[in-house]
Design goal:
Radius of gyration: 33 Å
Strand content: under 5%
Mean pLDDT: 84
Structural class: mainly alpha
Helix content: 55-70%
Shape: elongated
């Protein structure tokens, strides 16, 4: 910025722009509030059906989110403009003051017309008016004024230039819609970009020359700015796609920098995490440079980084940086396709294993769970955080007979293709890997289960569903059906890998309407009214559901997820169906007695099937302790405590039906809250532990707990909704419980060859 530009700058237009942006922010705040409190809130109460359940509701949620992002981006732009205006006005005032002080020493500042300026004598003593005294000045005064003016102009230029840079970077982040990057002023945005440039220079260094101080700067900077949109995009694109992969691969080569590793090896896990989070943030950017970065990373996913063709592949490196954060879905799908191409290449279409760590390979993962040599392990963790990408990935084809004429799958040779789900869940020859304690690593299959949890539920693994979540789509429901059928076909797919069952249990807990419909065996009756759901229904066979529940029930965490979920679901169903204000077209057309008996019968069958699984785990070869199950139930109750009375715990498919409207109205929430609080206050530890070594006692105690929960739900719902003789409701619930546990025992006989303990008598 030259002298005259700053000296004579008028800020009226900038003032107007700031005022306009402030007005826009206010309007966007109103729109955001209306979207959250009106559009989104009503969407969560609405009776969605058909495609509306999965398309329109999701669109409304996305639209409401766009208003929030628009508000954030507008606020950032206003803040940067306002901060820059204030800074330039301050620099203008400093310039005027400096010029004024110069005049007092008979010095003036004059523009040279080419962007420069000069400090000269204002009035020569020979030309001064007669009798006038001209102030004296020294050469130091001239130099001092010149340097002061130049410093002011440099700082003004920096302010103006960085404002332009950050505003352009901010707007470029998203081609469609708005960026959610928020900055309180120009300085914070400019500092993020400068830090990105500085750290990228360090990361580009030869790792042999990297100092401990530079390592620390990288570690601290990435941790601080991992979620900063401008920083992440600039850092990643400065490195480039291949450069990013080479940075992590080279830093992890054996003996690359012994001194550094001696000092900082125990901090490599944090560096890996925050580098991964930074790249996840960057992947959400739509800038041209970032699109180029994504293409490079995808292109190297199935190729070695080294020209001589040696390991690692780019995918082995990148997957280990994907274990944290939310990566862009489109990028994940394109990357996943290339990883599958790499898998097919090194396994010859899945006919043998690969990715086996050799002990002298770079340690690409520092979490302690595995070596990181299998690229699918980290990629599945990324999918666990990105539900939409996960759903698409597992539905894609792994191999077809047209690609591999020798392609055969045991018992399923008639299939023309093998999906990614079928290959990775059923057929893959997993590499033998080890954790930091030299124990067999479970990370690969565990992350696969978490990715399946995200793919079927629509939310990141490990989280509970919320009212904003759309009901299940056709693709999600189809995958759920495939999981249940696959486990029935070979329960060892779970029992040999029990660490997968917590995710399987969570999946089941969010498909309880589908499960209850399946075990009702009522294709032409009114079961659909008794167990309403929105969105797509998972098509499940009764025998498959029985086998699945018994198998999941053998894991304490899987057992707890379904058992607690079913109790919450039962309480909400009681509340919903006994409400006299329920519209006639949504009402189960039977008496209160039949309604209560049928609900508790289905709930009893679910609990009974789980109890058979628990019995197998406690008294069978696994020899688990009953206390493990009761402890897991207690932990699951804590996880659900925030959902008491909200209707959230029963799963999105249930929320999004008319039941959701009842729950959201507050009536259902009151009753369900009372029931669930009573259930959750109970301790099952002593009850189950006392019976832990006797099959009959385990079965009987499970029946007792189910009766207590069902009767409590029926009594409280009957009282609140004014049914006469609420004590009769308890008798009806007991009858339903008895029938349900008998159903569970009878149906389990059909899969008794999978069990080592005797199925209880019906």
């Amino acid at each position: 910025m030259d002298l005259d530009t700053l000296r004579f700058a008028k800020f009226g237009l900038l003032d107007e722009a700031i005022t306009d942006w402030t007005t826009l922010i206010s309007k966007l705040e109103d729109l955001k509030r209306d979207a959250d409190d009106g559009l989104r809130a009503q969407a969560n109460k609405a009776n969605w059906a058909g495609s509306n359940a999965t398309v329109s509701k999701a669109f409304i949620g996305k639209t409401a989110g766009e208003f929030a992002d628009a508000h954030t981006q507008a606020t950032s732009i206003r803040n940067i403009l306002r901060d820059t205006r204030n800074e330039l006005q301050s620099f203008q005032k400093q310039l005027e003051d400096a010029i004024e002080r110069g005049l007092k020493k008979n010095l003036t500042v004059v523009s040279t017309g080419d962007g420069g300026f000069t400090v000269t004598m204002n009035i020569h003593p020979d030309r001064a008016a007669k009798g006038a005294t001209v102030p004296d000045h020294t050469p130091q005064d001239v130099t001092g004024l010149r340097d002061e003016i130049q410093k002011i102009l440099n700082e003004a230029t920096q302010s103006d230039t960085t404002a332009s840079t950050v505003l352009k970077a901010l707007v470029d982040q998203s081609k469609l819609g708005f960026s959610d990057a928020g900055y309180k002023d120009r300085d914070s945005a400019a500092a993020a970009l400068k830090e990105a440039d500085d750290l990228a220079k360090i990361a580009k260094k030869n790792p042999e020359d990297l100092t401990v101080k530079e390592f620390d700067l990288l570690a601290v900077g990435l941790k601080k700015y991992a979620n900063d949109d401008l920083f992440a995009e600039r850092f990643a694109t400065n490195l480039g796609g291949k450069g990013t992969l080479e940075f992590w691969a080279d830093l992890n080569r054996p003996m690359i920098n012994p001194e550094l590793m001696h000092e900082r090896r125990d901090q490599m896990d944090d560096l890996q995490k925050h580098l991964g989070l930074t790249l996840a943030t960057a992947s959400q950017s739509d800038t041209a440079a970032m699109e180029s970065w994504k293409r490079d990373v995808v292109n190297f996913a199935d190729k070695p980084l080294e020209k001589n063709g040696g390991m690692p592949f780019g995918g082995q490196v990148m997957s280990n940086l994907m274990r944290w954060g939310d990566y862009d879905d489109k990028f994940l799908n394109e990357y996943g396709n290339k990883l599958v191409a790499a898998e097919k290449k090194v396994t010859h279409n899945g006919t043998h294993g690969a990715w086996q760590p050799m002990g002298v390979d770079p340690q690409l993962n520092h979490t302690g769970t595995d070596s990181g040599w299998d690229p699918m392990t980290g990629f599945f963790k990324a999918l666990a955080n990105s539900p939409d990408a996960a759903t698409e990935f597992f539905g894609d084809t792994f191999v077809t007979k047209d690609e591999d004429h020798d392609f055969k799958v045991e018992g399923k040779d008639e299939r023309r293709s093998l999906s990614n789900f079928e290959y990775f869940f059923e057929e893959r020859d997993w590499p033998h890997d080890y954790d930091k304690d030299r124990e067999e690593s479970i990370a690969g299959r565990n992350n696969l289960a978490m990715a399946l949890e995200a793919a079927t539920t629509g939310h990141p693994a490990g989280e509970m569903p919320t009212a904003d979540l759309a009901p299940h789509s056709e693709a999600q429901a189809k995958l759920m059906s495939a999981i249940v059928a696959s486990v029935e076909e070979d329960p060892k797919r779970l029992t040999d890998h029990a660490h997968m069952s917590d995710s399987m249990g969570q999946i089941a807990s969010e498909y309880l309407p589908d499960i209850n419909r399946a075990i009702a065996d009522d294709p032409h009756g009114n079961t659909d009214l008794l167990f309403p759901l929105a969105g797509a229904q998972a098509e499940l066979d009764h025998k498959d559901v029985t086998a699945f529940l018994i198998t999941v029930g053998q894991s304490p965490d899987g057992y707890a997820a379904v058992e607690v979920g079913q109790k919450a679901y039962m309480a909400d169903l009681m509340d919903y169906h006994l409400n006299p204000d329920l519209p006639a077209d949504q009402r189960y057309p039977h008496s209160a007695q039949e309604t209560i008996e049928t609900i508790t019968r289905r709930s009893g069958e679910v609990s009974g099937s789980l109890a058979i699984g628990m019995q197998e785990a406690v008294l069978g070869p696994a020899a688990k302790e009953a206390k493990e199950f009761s402890d897991s139930v207690a932990q699951q109750k804590n996880a659900w405590s925030g959902a008491i009375g909200t209707g959230i715990g029963v799963g999105v498919s249930f929320i999004a039906t008319p039941v959701g409207g009842a729950v959201a109205s507050g009536v259902a929430g009151t009753v369900s809250g009372m029931v669930l609080e009573h259930i959750f206050q109970q301790s099952e530890t002593d009850v189950l532990t006392e019976a832990s070594r006797n099959a009959g006692d385990l079965w009987e105690k499970s029946r007792d707990l189910s009766a207590e929960h069902g009767q409590r739900a029926a009594i409280d719902a009957a009282k609140v909704h004014g049914l006469p003789h609420p004590d009769k409701a308890a008798d009806w619930a007991l009858t339903g419980r008895d029938n349900g546990f008998n159903d569970a025992a009878t149906n389990a006989k059909g899969m008794a060859d999978h069990l080592t303990t005797e199925v209880p008598a019906a």
